[in-house]
């Protein structure tokens, strides 16, 4: 369906804190017309939400699973609550401290 948007929550496990992971993800999201947020957790993971066109969300999901920032080491990435949405719920992609 033309004009559809996706929203998905994620959690990335591995060496993903202290390696500029959130900053690189923010740049990737902005370059791929995605909005949402990302933040570190106390358990050493990174969580967040992506929203955007399906192809863009797929690109970001692949990046979260396989690539990450240059110094990160991704063990696994879990995606939850993937749904089609009618409009974006965020206006930009935020790094939450």
TrEMBL record:
<keyword id="KW-0378">Hydrolase</keyword>
<dbReference type="Pfam" id="PF00708">
    <property type="entry name" value="Acylphosphatase"/>
</dbReference>
<feature type="active site">
    <location>
        <position position="22"/>
    </location>
</feature>
<protein>
    <recommendedName>
        <fullName>Acylphosphatase</fullName>
        <ecNumber>3.6.1.7</ecNumber>
    </recommendedName>
</protein>
<dbReference type="InterPro" id="IPR017968">
    <property type="entry name" value="Acylphosphatase_CS"/>
</dbReference>
<dbReference type="GO" id="GO:0003998">
    <property type="term" value="F:acylphosphatase activity"/>
</dbReference>
<dbReference type="InterPro" id="IPR020456">
    <property type="entry name" value="Acylphosphatase"/>
</dbReference>
<dbReference type="InterPro" id="IPR036046">
    <property type="entry name" value="Acylphosphatase-like_dom_sf"/>
</dbReference>
<feature type="active site">
    <location>
        <position position="40"/>
    </location>
</feature>
<dbReference type="InterPro" id="IPR001792">
    <property type="entry name" value="Acylphosphatase-like_dom"/>
</dbReference>
<comment type="similarity">
    <text>Belongs to the acylphosphatase family.</text>
</comment>
């Amino acid at each position: 369906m033309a004009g559809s948007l996706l929203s998905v929550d994620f959690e990335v496990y591995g060496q993903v804190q202290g390696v500029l992971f959130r900053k690189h993800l923010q740049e990737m999201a902005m370059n791929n017309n995605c909005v949402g947020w990302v933040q570190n957790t106390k358990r050493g993971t990174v969580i967040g939400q992506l929203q955007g066109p399906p192809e863009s969300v797929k690109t970001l999901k692949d990046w979260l699973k396989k690539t990450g920032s240059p110094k990160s080491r991704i063990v696994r990435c879990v995606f939850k609550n993937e749904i089609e949405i009618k409009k974006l719920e965020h206006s930009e992609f935020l790094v939450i401290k």
